[in-house]
Design goal:
Length: 305
């Protein structure tokens, strides 16, 4: 049976997270020349119907670091036969003939699930529209754990587009497994969908929904910034009216705790002033690097488990 990764709520319990994070930590300490070769003779396909820098390149680096092989379709909407009208199912069945696993990003919510219904090899959801981005959540939680040494007891501020941000949708499902306080910092129209709010509440998280972050900034241990997702807006005027609601500058950072950390799944547009990058609390480029190690651990788990 193929072990797909479609949603973070499938089987990522604390035991599996601990196992993956230990392995990711091992990888982070090894020089490339000393990496094991567990995925020799296995081929991973990356098939991206939406743009990506980090997710695609980190998966591609991860498979090659583990001595596997890579095939890729960049800009699959234009440069695969989807452009000629091929169905997603036929594309996936075709790639099944060449690859042992498929990492797919697609603009439609539910596309990864649709692909998994026909695929004999694991499908890894690398983002399905405004749905989920489970492997980003794995690396986000790992980054919090690495920087703060724990998850339980933390206050976490989630900022920006909580409605459309798929990284948020996956991350909150992981955070729901812990005892946390969550500040949902967003304009009313971009607040967290009700189903995720309900999940957090039913798992005992303390929730504060705010549209002004002045009071929250000094309370959080983790500030998780996100981009307002322009591509999910029907009307550009609506995006323009709201896109600059929360911009993190050194002046805002000065209000934060000394030991707090700032994360962002990236890409950023202008919601974090580059001047913040010099602050030791800015961890988003470490977070990028963590993504490589976590995805190596995940690939090894999926193919060798
Ligand atoms: N975080 C993330 O998904 O980045 P990319 O869109 O560059 O893959």
């Amino acid at each position: 049976m193929s072990v797909h990764v479609i949603s973070i709520d499938q089987y990522f319990d604390k035991d599996l997270l601990a196992k993956l994070y230990k392995r990711a930590n091992d990888f982070s300490k090894l020089p490339l020349a000393d990496y094991p070769k567990p995925l020799q003779h296995l081929t991973l396909a990356t098939v991206f119907f939406e743009p990506s820098t980090r997710t695609r390149l980190s998966f591609e680096t991860a498979i090659q670091n583990l001595s596997g092989q890579l095939i890729t379709v960049e800009n699959a909407g234009d440069f695969s036969s989807a452009k000629k009208g091929e169905s997603l199912e036929d594309t996936i069945l075709t790639i099944n003939a060449y690859a042992d696993g498929i990492v797919m990003r697609h603009p439609q919510i539910g596309a990864a699930k649709q692909a998994a219904k026909v695929s004999r090899v694991p499908i890894i959801n690398a983002g399905d529209g405004g749905g989920e981005h489970p492997t980003q959540a794995l690396l986000d939680l790992y980054s919090i754990q690495q920087c703060r040494g724990k998850i339980d007891g933390l206050s976490i501020g989630l900022v920006g587009d909580l409605l459309n941000g798929r990284t948020i949708h996956s991350l909150v499902q992981l955070l729901a497994q812990y005892h946390v306080t969550i500040y949902l910092i967003a304009p009313d129209s971009l607040q967290l969908p009700a189903k995720y709010l309900k999940l957090l509440k039913s798992n005992g998280a303390t929730i504060h929904q705010v549209d002004n972050w002045d009071k929250a900034l000094g309370k959080v241990d983790v500030l998780y910034m996100t981009r307002v997702q322009k591509e999910r807006f029907k009307f550009v005027e609506d995006y323009l009216a709201i896109k600059d609601s929360f911009i993190l500058t050194p002046k805002q950072v000065a209000k934060m705790k000394k030991e707090a950390i700032i994360l962002h799944p990236l890409p950023r547009v202008n919601e974090i002033d580059p001047a913040v990058d010099q602050d030791p609390r800015a961890k988003y480029f470490e977070q990028v690097k963590n993504g490589l190690y976590v995805r190596m651990a995940l690939l090894e788990y999926l193919f060798k488990h």
